[in-house]
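can u do me a favor
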């Protein structure tokens, strides 16, 4: 088999939190599509229709990146640029967290969160499609259950890199999966239909994820248009959109008031005796625009006790 191998180096800031990235990709303890070591991430994915394995090796001030592709690609220079851009997004290096921390480091409530997690960035999925499908998978079920369904989905599609990792499917592959196969993988009928409709819309370029992810900056007008189009897909609601924009594009202003973990941590942060409602969480987060999703990420990182 003819292969393509790409490599580059990405600089890391002094306060880079490597473990946040590794923990995000460590969710599946069976490690069929991702393998994580102390300073290494291997991830199976699709690259221009070919199985590929992404290798991110972390060092003190930089990361060395490799992409081993099972097949030949047309333009290696363009692929190298896209790979470096993808990795910078995945590591959260495009996020203006310094502005956020400077603005809120003395805030009565957020100040303690920032002091506890200096340099916190939101790790992203390799592609927006992965973020969208993960968000749909995780709707109204536990993280452990969602991880199990995700694993079965990857195995159902059944693409494996020569290095051994299974590859997370792309929209082209998902558009060709029938509903019965998704049901056997553990998806409800509604989620299975949403995944198929979403994948077909992306495959037909009615949802231009590539154009969106390659936009210079995910600003509010673009995010509003993305949200509008995604919400037209039956089965995708506001939480799914906000989560996907955060994990897939690095948009930091989605309101994750519908996230149960965010509300639980908010209750502890605000020392509230009563549970936080979605309406109140939305009201409280509104003050922190354009960083509402980054506030949610700090809440996720906050311990529930102690």
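np, heres the sequence
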């Amino acid at each position: 088999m003819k292969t393509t191998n790409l490599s580059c180096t990405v600089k890391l800031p002094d306060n880079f939190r490597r473990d946040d990235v590794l923990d995000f990709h460590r969710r599946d303890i069976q490690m069929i599509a991702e393998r994580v070591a102390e300073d290494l991430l291997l991830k199976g994915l699709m690259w221009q229709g070919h199985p590929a394995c992404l290798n991110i090796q972390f060092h003190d001030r930089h990361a060395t990146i490799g992409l081993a592709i099972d097949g030949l690609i047309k333009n290696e220079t363009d692929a190298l640029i896209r790979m470096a851009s993808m990795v910078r997004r995945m590591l959260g290096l495009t996020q203006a967290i310094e502005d956020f921390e400077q603005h809120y480091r003395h805030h009565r409530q957020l100040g303690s969160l920032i002091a506890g997690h200096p340099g916190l960035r939101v790790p992203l999925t390799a592609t927006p499609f992965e973020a969208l499908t993960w968000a749909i998978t995780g709707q109204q079920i536990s993280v452990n259950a969602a991880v199990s369904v995700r694993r079965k989905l990857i195995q159902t599609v059944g693409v494996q890199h020569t290095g051994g990792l299974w590859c997370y499917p792309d929209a082209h592959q998902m558009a060709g999966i029938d509903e019965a196969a998704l049901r056997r993988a553990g998806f409800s009928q509604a989620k299975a239909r949403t995944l198929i409709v979403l994948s077909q819309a992306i495959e037909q370029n009615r949802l231009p994820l590539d154009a969106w992810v390659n936009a210079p900056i995910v600003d509010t007008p673009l995010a509003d248009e993305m949200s509008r189009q995604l919400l037209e897909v039956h089965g995708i609601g506001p939480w799914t959109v906000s989560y996907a924009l955060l994990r897939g594009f690095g948009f930091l202003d989605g309101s994750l008031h519908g996230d149960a973990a965010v509300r639980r941590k908010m209750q502890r942060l605000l020392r509230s005796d009563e549970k936080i409602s979605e309406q109140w969480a939305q009201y409280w987060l509104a003050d922190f625009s354009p960083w509402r999703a980054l506030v949610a990420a700090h809440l996720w990182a906050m311990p529930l006790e102690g």
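The chain has a mean pLDDT of 94. hope that helps!!
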